[in-house]
Amino acid sequence: MSLKGLFNPRWPGVALFDLDGTLVDSAPDLAAAVDQMLEHLGRKPAGLEKVRNWVGNGAGILVRRALADKTDWEPAALKDEILYNDALEIFYHAYGQINGRNAVVFDGVTECLNHLRSLRCKMAVVTNKPDRFVAPLLNKTGLDQYFRIWVGGDTLEVKKPDPAPLLYAMEQLGGTRGTTVMVGDSAADVNAAQAAGIPCVAVRYGYNFGGSVNSLGADAVVDSLAQLL
Ligand SMILES: O=C(O)COP(=O)(O)O
Ligand SMILES: [Mg+2]
Description:
Pfam families: HAD_2 (PF13419). The protein has 229 residues and is an alpha/beta fold. It has two domains: 3-26 and 103-228, HAD superfamily/HAD-like (Rossmann fold), CATH 3.40.50; 27-98, DNA polymerase, domain 1. Helices cover 41% and strands 12% of the residues. It is built from nine helices and eight strands. The strands form two sheets. The chain has a six-stranded parallel beta sheet with strand order 5-4-1-6-7-8, with helices on both faces. Strands 2-3 form a two-stranded antiparallel ribbon. α2 packs across α5 (78-98) and α4 (59-68) packs across α5. The protein binds 2-phosphoglycolic acid (PGA) and magnesium ion. Residues 18, 20-22, 56, 184-186, 206-207 line the site of magnesium ion.
């Protein structure tokens, strides 16, 4: 499918954007918070390279991956659950202070959002990031001006790759499957869009758990959101 085909001619349409790894490079802040948490628990810091591959399924899974020191964390024993709950609290506290400090909007994002806004496209953020961290990050990066609504990782009972958050945002903005597109950086985004029955653009510069986005089955893969103009 060509990129033109993704954006239905019946504008105004609806565009749903993933946050971490798509709009904002938040991995440095997330890594700093993960490392504070690990050090607090007497463990070795994980570092940015590992942590950026652990982002995309929400804070709970990020903390589980950090405790397991690998992306494919195993279901934990009960004693691990107690540790997990402590670790999650420590992470929340640390990230609450760090969120947005070193976060950078990726190249091409502002151009794309300005362009879509000029077409009167309605835009939402659909992220797995816990709700409490979404607005502060959008405010600090100046991206809040573009979005009518955002859906966080705990806004609904389920998160991406479940299609519900995408469909919820689409409906809130009065969109339909024929006029809506999802833009994301990971399998969670592409799988959610496919399950929702809406087309998906994947960006190559994001996190995607360390893997390539080329084989996820996205309708288009781009190196910069400026390519969508
Ligand atoms: O996993 C997270 O916390 C955020 O992920 P997302 O913005 O890429 O959905
Ligand atoms: Mg992402």
